[in-house]
Amino acid sequence: MRSVARDQRGVALITALLVVVLATLAAAAMVSRQHLDIRRAGNVLGQDQAYLIALAAEGYALGLMSGEGADQDLPWEGCISPPLWVELEEARMEIWLEDMHCRFNLNNLSGANQAAADGFMRMLELVRGENQELALDPEQLTAAVQDWMNPETDDPVYRLATPPYLSANRPMVMAAELRRVQGMNPALWGVLAPHVTALPGSGTAMNLEYASPLLQEAFPGMEGAETRSRYFRLGVHAELAGRNFLMCSLLDTGDGRVLWRSQGTCDD
C-alpha cells in the first residue's frame, strides 16, 4: 500500500509539474504576443502621425501657393525648388515643389491640337536619334497615344495582351499610364518619364524657359511665351520617432485643391 501511495504521489507531482510548464509556456506566449501587438500598434500610430504631418505640409503648401501671393514670381529659379527642411516637435520634414509646366502635358494630345502632336513627334525623333538602340516609331506612337485617350476608338491589340485590358478612352490621370500604350517599353519610358506629365485639360502651356533642352528643341518658337504656372508636384519626406514616411501630391493652385496623392516617392 505504501508503494502504491508513493507511486500516486509521484504521478501527482509529475502532473503538477506538467501543468506548471504548460501554464508557463502559455504565459510566455501571451507576453510575447502582447509585445508584438504593442509594437505593431506603435508602428501604425507612428505611420498615422507621420501621414497627418505630411498632410499638414501639403495643406500649408497649397494654401501658400493658392493665396494672395500666388500671382507673384516663385522664390526660386528653375523647375524644382531647393529642399526645405522643417522641424516640428519630434518630426522633421524635407519638402520640395516641382513646376509641372516644365514638362509636356500628354493630355494635350487628347484634342485636335496639331502643334502638340507635331512637337511630341519631334521629341520622339530626338529621343530616337540619341538612343539608337530603342525600338521607336514616333508617328506610330503619337497616334497610339491619341487613340488611347480617344473615347471613339478601342484598339483590339490591348484585348489580345496577356493579361488583356482596355484602352482608357479618356485623358490620362497620371503620366505612368503611358507605359500601357502600344509601342511603349520600359527602356523608352525611362527616357521619356522626366519630360512628360499628365495635367487636366488639353491646352496646358509649357514653361520652356526652364524646361529640358529636349523640350526646348522639340517646341521651337515657344521659349519666349510667358506661362503662369498652376500645377505643382509636392514631395514630402517626414521623419518621426525613427520612422520615415514619403508622400507625393499633385497640387492645382488655381482651384486650391489636391488632384491626387500617393504614398511613396515622386517617381518620374
Task: Describe, in plain words, how this protein is organized in 3D.
- The chain has helices spanning 2-66, 114-130, 138-149, 186-192, 213-218, and strands spanning 84-88, 91-99, 104-105, 196-197, 231-240, 243-252, 257-263.
- It is α+β, with helices and mostly antiparallel strands and 268 residues long.
- It folds into two domains: 10-101 and 228-263, Pantoate--beta-alanine Ligase, Chain: A,domain 2, CATH 3.30.1300.30; 104-205, Orthogonal Bundle (Ribonucleotide Reductase Protein R1, domain 1), CATH 1.10.40.60.
- The strands form two sheets. A five-stranded antiparallel beta sheet has the order 1-2-5-6-7, with helices on one face. The protein has a two-stranded parallel sheet with strand order 3-4.
- The longest helix is centred in the first third of the chain and has 65 residues, at 2-66.
Shape: elongated
Q: Roughly what fraction of the amino acids lie in strands?
A: 15-25%
- Secondary structure: number of strands: 7
Main sheet record: 5 strands, antiparallel
Write down the overall mean pLDDT: 84
Radius of gyration, CA atoms, in whole angstroms: 29 Å
Order of helices and strands: HEEEHHHEHEEE
Structural classification? alpha+beta
**What helical percentage do the residues reach?**
25-40%
> What is the assembly state of the chains in this entry?
single chain
- Integer tally of domains: 2
Contiguous runs where pLDDT drops below 50 for at least 5 residues? none
CATH topology of the largest domain: Pantoate--beta-alanine Ligase, Chain: A,domain 2
Q: Strand order across the biggest sheet? A: 1-2-5-6-7
User: In angstroms, what separates the terminal alpha carbons?
Assistant: 87 Å
CATH architecture heading of the largest domain: 2-Layer Sandwich
